From TrEMBL:
Top-rank taxon: Bacteria
Pfam families associated with the record: Glyco_trans_1_4 (PF13692)
GO MF term set: glycosyltransferase activity
Protein name: Glycosyltransferase family 4 protein
Regions annotated as coiled coil: none
Length: 175
């Protein structure tokens, strides 16, 4: 099975409706594909209705808010974050640390976080998001991408790496 995980508020700027539209496009969601939606918000009712009335029926699970996000990311195969606006989302760093591929929109610092190993679409581009999802599902070695992202996360997001970068910044300022 191929299990995608979305984590976030179910509000317009997080793009959950765009994600559902992309997954519903012909040839995107594999027969064994599933999506777990972690979070809640004003768009939940509409999202659940779209799933129940469309081709994604039985393929999407809505969990609401959860405290066990790291475990849910580990249980999934990839993170999807189709936001129209982000800065440096913690959930992307968590997915990378868990060795999971990331399909996201090129907004804020996301592209810098995932580098060339991420699957990026433009915000609001449902067809582009669908293409990136197809690319993920068609990748012969998604675990290899996950390993690359885990290594990148280890080098950039651990407390030690952050402390080292801050120290370098401060040393540069005092010189």
């Amino acid at each position: 099975m191929r299990k995608l995980v979305f984590v976030g508020l179910l509000v317009a700027r997080k793009g959950v409706l765009d994600l559902l539209a992309a997954l519903a496009m012909p040839g995107v969601m594999p027969v064994d594909g599933r999506l777990t939606v972690v979070g809640d918000g004003p768009q939940r009712g509409e999202a659940e209705r779209l799933v129940e009335e469309g081709v994604l029926r039985g393929k999407v699970e809505f969990l609401g808010f959860r405290a066990d996000v790291p475990e849910l990311l580990l249980a999934g195969d990839a993170l999807v974050l189709p936001s129209s606006m982000e800065q440096q989302p913690l959930v992307v760093a968590e997915a990378m640390s868990a060795g999971k591929p990331v399909v996201a929109t090129d907004t804020g610092g996301v592209a810098d976080m995932v580098g060339a190993s991420g699957y990026l679409a433009q915000p609001g581009d449902v067809a582009g998001l669908a293409d990136r999802l197809r690319a993920l599902f068609g990748d012969p070695d998604p675990a290899g991408i996950g390993r690359e992202l885990a290594s990148r996360a280890q080098a950039r997001f651990t407390p030690e790496a952050c402390a080292r970068r801050h120290l370098e910044l401060y040393e540069g300022l005092v010189k």
